[in-house]
Design a protein that fits this description.
CATH class of the largest domain: Mainly Beta
Structural class: mainly beta
Distance between the termini: 74 Å
Helix content: under 10%
Largest sheet: 11 strands, mixed
Number of helices: 3
Radius of gyration: 38 Å
Shape: globular
Number of strands: 64
Strand content: 35-45%
CATH superfamily of the largest domain: Cadherins
């Protein structure tokens, strides 16, 4: 039968329409790509995409999506990626919300190590997404990618897996929360950041879509509690995505990156593109309250109740998602979660049970997600029309190693000298590859037990001295063959270091991320003190020539009657090392002898601090022989510190072998009514480093010796001294508490005014005039930048310290680099120079700032940063004659093309065909094609893209077009 022409045309149109609609079938809502390494001897990985499909408008298309294609390419390469097919793994899972989950898996062996991008694209997204474009979303493909670092040191690494489906319902006007439930079976750290949804571009690289955060699609409304405007953000640490609160119903897609970190390095990142379905519902979301995070010892049975409620009386389903339920991700035993009254009550309680074990110890916490969804209450007229809502919370569980027990030690015979043999009980968690780390300190030291921060806390004074396998129970400490110092009271603790879950002991870095045990109880060798110990370096008198410092020490525990000798040395400055002997004190250590004190006189204690050490000599075979020397101890140095007007700032420090931390220091101010008399005005609790501070506003905060308040006047001078309070924290050293005075410091409020930042400028380059001189940058040994600045009288509404004694000039070659100090200008002293020539440069480009320094050494904030770029100097001729006469045979720039970083040159004939190209900075075109064929005489056109060296690392791009006459 022959159909009429109009019928045949209609049929063709119908078939084309059907094919077009199938090509743009709308079905993809959300998804991500994950991977895991399958062999330690090859780079073979299992790669999986988990896709979520819209069953409302794209069921047929979703059913036909029986496979997807991965594109895999090195991140640093611009070449064509490898394409592999991944079949769908049945069954398809209905996850509710008119969505199914499809899983596609393939294996691939990477050719070598490096960073690889794995991407997947599918036509098309489901229709009607409000916050992405530019086209209707059923005309946009769905694209996600994962960056995977292939590195032999990472072992059988797996990307995190996302346990919570990326489809949720949100309600207009109500706070919405989503958490991906990311779980890393290797114990790596996870972090999160927002990402722009993409569609596929060339070579498997994504191209950003036109995207808006969901809260900005329509005029922002209010948060659930009435705040304004509505907000949308992700928590970088927890991964909670909170939209507070939606305004307009519809579909919204957002994307975020799940970052995988190990030992401070980023080793992989997954992009998840997810969909939020907002509906205008007459329903309130249910609630599951947050649970406080816990830290438990391995072997603890966790039994936690979780309760969810609904104020509307809706029936609730309470579920939980985490890797702790999956035996493929953690070693048994796995956790369980059971709920009574599931799906039938408006208040439900679940019970989380997990028998932890030694295999579960790791540094990173285990994340457990609890999610509650409501359903139509009993008697609801049409349950299929009920719009359910959800709430969720994430609970963190950290599993730490038990505390080692039974640590003790005895003196041991060793060729190195003094040594101690340590022993301890067999450790209860015998994990393959675990290590016992041995720590030592030179005094008996208390440290806090913090189960959420296992190991040895930083700053405790302990240092690791060795490691043994976890099944060992002994260690010999001979100070690595050098022998220990005799008579020192050493303190020991041990800590167990665990491998990363799933790591092999032979892997590099296998202990990174595995976690630690609580430190063992201390074992301290309370040996008699056989060396003198300096206990005081206190300033008795402040003067430029008659200053006095008293140095005291504790006598060693030794038999009296034996001749001995102390030799005291002094160096100028707290860090001074140029020691000079200032006293020799002979002693027989007899009771009551005054042999532990020396008064050092005729010092400049006003200008200087002083550093002291003591050598101790004993009788050996009838001769005085040096036994040992003490650690150095400095005097307390008081200095001015920055403060507001009508206040005085003080800071002080002491470099001593005892601790001045965790003590209360005393501040004294001279009573002007009684010159020379100092009144205690404050007691300052100090915890941090060796430098401490206080700001005096005139108030006497210490009433026990009388209250003397003053009004701090700008032009008056006030005198201070500080008394530090410290201790060795060693019961054998007396006195237990050590008091030491600083020198007296007299200053006025104007002395403590911080210098203000200068205002910097650079002399401009006249590039226009230089371009008229092709040889402008020839035959030079270096370039110079001339800097000038001004120092303000006021800045930010406050006075600036007028007593500036120096300027510091900083330079960075590129924007974003950390500037380094290149000069300090201190001369002539008056007036101080406010200009500087930075000479000998290979380029003008760079960035500068300047700071001011006052007479007390206080440095201002940086000035404005000024960056300079080079003059783009590149001049080409318009004729060349490649005839072999050695004159003008080569087309190249005029002399000295300046500051060229890179270029790309292309020449075309009059018909637009490319005849020559090069990346040579000097072009060096000899009138031939790249294949060596001579070109005919005539006019040729060129395009030049050139990058000039600038203050930016990538250089400044300039495009040039022109013509050149080729003559023969």
């Amino acid at each position: 039968m022959i159909r009429p022409l109009s019928a045949r045309i209609l049929l063709v149109i119908l078939m084309l329409t059907l094919a077009f609609s199938q090509a743009f079938a709308t079905h993809f809502r959300a998804g991500e790509i994950t991977a895991r390494r399958m062999s330690l001897t090859s780079h073979i990985y299992e790669i999986k995409v988990t896709g979520y499909f819209d069953m409302v408008s794209g069921k047929d298309a979703a059913d036909r999506q029986t496979s997807v294609f991965f594109k895999i390419g090195n991140v640093q390469s611009t070449g064509t990626p490898v394409t592999i097919e991944a079949p769908r793994i049945m069954p398809i899972v209905d996850i509710g919300n008119n969505t199914t989950m499809n899983t596609y898996i393939a294996t691939y062996t990477f050719p070598t190590t490096g960073a690889y991008r794995i991407s997947m694209e599918v036509d098309a997204r489901n229709d009607g997404v409000l916050n992405i474009g530019p086209e209707p979303t059923n005309r946009l493909n769905f694209y996600v990618s994962t960056v995977l670092e292939i590195n032999a040191t990472f072992g059988l690494n797996r990307t995190p897996v996302l346990r919570n489906a990326p489809i949720d319902l949100a309600a207009v006007g109500q706070r919405y929360i989503h958490n991906p439930g990311a779980f890393d079976a290797d114990g790596d750290s996870i972090a999160y950041r927002m990402f722009t949804p993409q569609q596929a571009g060339a070579n498997g690289v994504g191209v950003n879509l036109e995207y808006q955060d969901p809260n900005t699609v329509t005029p922002p409304g209010q948060t659930e509690t009435g705040g304004s405007p509505a907000t949308f953000a992700i928590n970088r640490v927890t991964g909670d995505i909170i939209w507070n609160a939606p305004v307009t119903k519809g579909y919204y897609n957002v994307a975020f990156v799940v970052e995988e970190w190990r030992d401070g390095a980023l080793i992989g990142q997954i992009v998840r593109d997810m969909q939020i379905i907002v509906d205008d519902v007459r329903n309130d979301r249910p609630a599951v309250p947050p649970l406080p995070d816990i830290c438990v010892e391995a072997g603890t049975l966790i039994n936690q109740r979780v309760t969810a409620t609904d104020r509307n009386g809706d029936r609730l389903n309470l579920t939980s998602a985490s890797g702790v339920y999956d035996p493929t991700l953690i070693k048994p035993a796995v956790a369980s979660f059971t709920v009574s009254g599931q799906g039938s009550q408006s208040s439900v309680t679940g019970t989380f049970v997990w028998q932890t074990s030694c295999e579960h110890i790791r540094l990173e916490p285990y994340n457990v997600l609890f999610k509650v969804e409501d359903a139509a209450p009993p008697g609801y007229p049409n349950p299929s029309l009920f719009r359910k809502l959800a709430d969720m919370t994430t609970w963190n569980i950290r599993v730490y190693g038990p505390k080692p027990t039974g640590l003790k030690g005895v003196a041991a015979t060793d060729p190195a000298g003094t040594a101690y043999r340590l022993t301890w009980d067999a450790y209860k968690c015998q994990i393959a590859g675990a290590k016992i780390a041995i720590y030592r300190a030179e005094q008996c030291t208390d440290i806090p037990d913090d189960v959420c921060s296992p190991g040895i806390p930083a700053g405790s004074g302990y240092q690791e001295i060795g490691r043994v396998d976890v099944d060992e129970t002994t260690f010999l400490d001979n100070n690595n063959g050098d022998g220990l110092r005799p008579g020192v009271s050493y303190s020991y603790r041990i800590v167990v270091l665990f491998p990363r879950p799933g790591a092999s002991p032979g892997e590099p870095g296998y202990l990174i991320g595995g976690g630690e045990s609580i430190a063992s109880p201390e074992f301290c060798l309370n040996l008699p003190v056989v060396m003198p110990v300096i206990t005081n370096v206190t300033v008795d008198s402040t003067s430029t020539t008659k200053g006095v410092i008293t140095v005291k020490w504790m006598r060693p525990a030794a038999a009296a009657g034996l001749p001995a000798q102390y030799r005291l040395f002094r160096a100028t400055g707290q860090n001074g090392t140029a020691f000079t002997q200032i006293a020799t004190i002979n002693t027989n250590l007899a009771a009551g002898a005054r042999d532990t004190l020396f008064v050092d006189r005729n010092l400049d204690t006003e200008a200087n601090a002083y550093n002291y050490k003591l050598e101790y000599y004993t009788t050996v075979n009838g001769q005085l022989t040096k036994f040992d020397e003490t650690k150095t101890a400095s005097s307390v140095r008081l200095e001015q510190d920055a403060a507001q007007p009508n206040q005085i700032g003080l800071k002080w420090s002491a470099l001593v072998p005892w601790s001045n931390n965790n003590r209360v220091h005393r501040i004294y101010r001279e009573d002007k009514a009684r010159p020379g008399t100092f009144n205690r005005i404050a007691e300052v609790s100090v915890q941090g480093p060796q430098t401490f501070s206080f700001v005096d506003d005139g108030t006497d905060q210490y009433a026990a010796d009388g209250v003397v308040n003053v009004s701090i006047a700008k032009d008056s001078t006030y005198c201070y001294k500080v008394e530090t309070v410290g201790s060795y924290n060693n019961s054998q050293i007396k006195p237990a508490v050590l008091y030491n005075f600083s020198q007296i410091l007299c200053i006025s409020p104007s002395d403590t005014i911080k210098p203000c930042p200068p205002v910097l400028s650079l002399d401009p380059l006249n590039c226009d005039s230089l371009q008229n001189i092709p040889q402008a940058f020839c035959n030079t040994i270096g370039f110079t930048n001339h800097l000038t600045w001004q120092y303000p009288q006021q800045a930010g509404g406050r006075d600036c310290d007028p007593l500036v004694t120096a300027y510091r000039v900083y330079y960075a070659r590129y924007e974003g680099d950390t500037p380094t100090l290149i000069t300090t200008i201190t001369t002539p002293p008056s007036p101080l120079q406010t200009a500087y020539d930075h000479e000998g440069l290979t380029s003008f480009a760079g960035c500068y700032y300047v700071t001011a320094v006052n007479k007390f050494g206080t440095e201002s904030a940086p000035s404005n940063t000024v960056c300079r770029d080079n003059c783009p100097m590149y001049v080409l001729p318009n004729v060349f004659t490649p005839n072999g006469d050695a004159k003008n045979d080569i087309f190249q720039p005029y002399e000295c093309p300046a500051f060229v970083q890179s270029l790309e040159f292309k020449a075309f004939n009059r018909w637009g065909a490319e005849v020559f190209s090069t990346r040579d900075v000097n072009i060096n075109w000899d009138g031939k094609t790249n294949g060596g064929k001579e070109l005919a005489a005539g006019q040729y056109y060129y395009e030049l893209t050139i990058y000039f060296e600038s203050s930016k690392k990538q250089g400044t791009e300039t495009s040039m077009k022109g013509w050149v006459q080729l003559l023969r």
